[in-house]
Amino acid sequence: GFSCEKCDFETDLCKALHELNLQPGWIRRNGRSAMGPPYSDHNGNDSAYFLSLSSQMRSSSATLRTNVFLPTDEEHVCQITFHYWISQKNGTLMVGLQKHSEDTITNIWQVSGELQNQWKANTITINSTEKYEVIFLGMVETQRQDETVAIDDITFSEGC
């Protein structure tokens, strides 16, 4: 049967992600938090939680790592679907793949801030012959409150 792990951030992080306190720069909040946009999650709910870059952080980028996933095969590809929000001036969200035998992170998807401040959805498919982690990297150029990158509802398919 098809089962998937969904991270909606309503209570905390899901099992597929490392604990957030190891990942400085991301903050779990909702649209009522008085921290600037976005003012709701991707469903338009201002009390539902999502992750966004903290405007208080010293560095301008933050990573969110998954736990180690097993190699994929033909029957079990790993599909990751997520919603993202990027401020229109300068935000970037990258998704990278780090295989166990490599130190480097391979960039598999990237988007920058031409999105006019709205939630969008994206699905990426991963094939890897060895164990791997997936990394979400959010970046902003300035530390203004209206400049942010947010992530919501990350869903991992059974092949992950």
UniProtKB/TrEMBL annotation:
What are the annotated GO cellular component locations?
membrane
What lineage, starting at the top, does this entry show?
Eukaryota, Metazoa, Chordata, Craniata, Vertebrata
Q: Which Gene3D superfamilies has this protein been placed in?
A: 2.60.120.200
Query: What gene is this protein a product of?
Result: Malrd1_4
PANTHER family with a match to the protein in the record: APICAL ENDOSOMAL GLYCOPROTEIN PRECURSOR (PTHR23282), MAM DOMAIN-CONTAINING PROTEIN (PTHR23282:SF101)
Protein name in UniProt: MALR1 protein
**Which SMART domains has this protein been placed in?**
MAM
Q: Which Pfam families match?
A: MAM
Q: Which residues form the MAM domain?
A: 5-160
